[in-house]
Amino acid sequence: MNVLRPYILVAVIVLIASSIYLINRSSVRRTGSDESVPVVPRISSEQQGMKKEEKSERYEVAKEITSPDGFINTDGITISSLIGKKVILVDFWTYSCINCQRTTQYLNAWYEKYKDKGFVIIGMHTPEFEFEKDYNNVTSAVKKFGIQFPVVLDNDYSTWTAYKNRYWPHKYLIDIDGYIAYDHIGEGAYEETEKKIQELLEERTMALGMDEEINRDISVPTGITQVNSSMIRSPETYFGAARNSNLGNGEANTVGLQNLSLPVNTKTNTLYLSGEWDFQDEFAENKNAQAKITFRYQAQNVYFVAGSKNTTNISIMKDGKFIGERAIREHTLYHVIEDSEYGEHTLEIIIENPGLRAFTFTFG
User: What are the CA-CA distances from residue 277 to residues 242, 249, 251, 259, 356 (Å)?
Assistant: First the structure.
């Protein structure tokens, strides 16, 4: 019996070590990684504009994709595998964001124009709401918006965190050496961004000793909705208890059921609800028929992020006049008011049956 003890001890140690290895291997990293991509040495830096030493003082090195939750339009992709070969645009977006949707039209145009010139876009889909984590929902959105470039699901915000990002959309341009040479938050600056893409592609051509001309024309996608941000005076407004600080009636930032009545007078840019509502962190769900949402807004267009387990019908009123009906089922962004001019108006949404989940209003 004493002879067997050393062997048993060794076997136990091996078993424990194996278990620790398997646990570490299978665990998902839920915080942003500090892993930087490799910086590629220049072949002839004197002939190619800014030297690598200058870049290291001026720019941050790009971060690698961390614990991806799925891929669309690719079987897998890493930033490090593209350094030294491509110019990369990393775009943080989420599919129910109207600002992201409008930006996507330019991304599609740039990808089509430059994909054969050494340019790649990685759409880093980082969800704002729980339903945006669903792979099938994201896949449907990618198809709907005509996105052909690779999309990575960043459900745990790990890559978002690695880039210290805080905004949708946010574009990062990574040059052939692996440095973040440019970034832009939100919509706009499309001409500036495309010129930087062209500049980095020309730098790539020189670095690789290629004789290739980059088209210097500026893309103008068709069907673009022009937005005058200075005329939009209504903020994004949330229904869920975690962020409904401008709820005009009832208890804001409170989870649970509330029976609400509309006040006689309402304020601009303040959310009012009537009927019985179940407030959860991300959304508010009406529990009775003929519940109502009222909001006095200052903008041209109104967008509504909503969904329903079963189809929920709504009637839309503007300044007391009926303007249309919608059937709400899919969890996505709905365009509920479309005007030709900016102005202040009162939106009323009458919900004909229970089950609507209201997430947010955004404006354009």
Answer: 15, 12, 11, 6, 10
